[in-house]
Design a protein that fits this description.
The protein is of the alpha+beta class. The chain has 11 helices and 8 strands. Belongs to the EF-Ts family.
Length: 277
């Protein structure tokens, strides 16, 4: 069967695949459009398998909160190279992933990827299709949810960093504004936990041992090492836990004090920071 330019263009419009790939698929399928689509999908599956171990250090991070600002979602769709992250199809796919996350409130990444799209096929199928079209590994590398009385989202200008922060004591416009400030603090200062109670035991033990070794190297007496290490641990809490950090816009305030000044007793219940690259 002769394959016409119109046939190739139609398949390209329906699948988004390249002209040569469409022509090759139609030729192999003897002009059968559905069979040609299956061939293109298998091409995506082959690329996904072949590039499974490749590093994905580029991509897009997107955030969104629901209508009443009580649930926030952040997703990271990653690819191998920066040019691919700027392709319109990639951007559209990232938005589709976020839209599915918000609309379904999927509990896990696996549940999210199984979400059916308008054509009845799963989100993972669409990701695989784009891999076949672009020729790179594409993957949802992060999917996080924050639920709170008020959730505020922040996207960094580079499109590769997103933050969700959950707050108590909801109020008016000032709560959203201070939430943005706190989210930007998280983006810039990379706290590891909300407060010292959120720091895991292994990290605490490691910091104490580091403090002891530093003090020992400085010639401090053995009987003083524990006390010195505890002092260094308190400094670690101040630098590395959100509520104890100095506010980057006003060093006279900690984040805890900033929130309390905005609304008495207000605090952060949870946060997520997701970055690519």
């Amino acid at each position: 069967m002769a394959i016409t330019a119109q046939d190739v263009n139609r398949l390209r419009q329906e699948t988004g695949a390249g002209m040569m790939d469409c022509k090759k698929a139609l030729t192999e399928a003897n002009g059968d459009f559905e069979a040609a689509k299956d061939i293109l999908r298998k091409q995506g599956q082959k690329i996904a398998s072949k590039r499974a171990d490749n590093t994905t250090s580029e991509g897009a991070v997107l955030t969104q909160v629901n209508a009443d600002a009580t649930v926030g979602k952040v997703i990271a769709l990653a690819c191998e190279t920066e040019p691919v992250s700027k392709v319109e199809d990639f951007k559209n796919l990232a938005q589709a992933v976020l839209d599915a996350a918000v609309s379904t409130n999927a509990a896990t990444k696996e549940e999210l990827l199984a979400t059916p799209q308008a054509d009845g096929r799963s989100l993972q199928d669409h990701i695989t299709d784009l891999m076949g079209k672009i020729g790179e590994k594409i993957d949802v590398v992060s999917y996080e949810t924050v639920t709170a009385e008020r959730v505020v989202a922040y996207n960094h200008s580079n499109g590769k960093l997103g933050v969700l922060v959950g707050l108590t004591n909801t109020g008016g416009k000032e709560v959203t504004e201070v939430g943005k400030d706190v989210a930007m603090q998280i983006a810039a200062m990379r706290p590891i936990a909300v407060d010292k109670d959120g720091v895991d035991a292994a990290t605490i033990e490691r910091e104490i041992e580091i403090g002891k070794e530093q003090a020992r190297a400085e010639g401090k007496p053995e009987e003083m090492l524990e006390k010195i290490a505890q002092g260094k641990l308190n400094k670690f809490y101040k630098e590395s836990t959100l509520l104890n950090q100095e506010f980057v816009k006003d060093s006279s305030l900690t984040i805890a004090k900033l929130l309390d000044n905005t609304n008495k007793g207000m605090t952060v219940t949870e946060f997520k920071r997701v970055a690519i690259g």
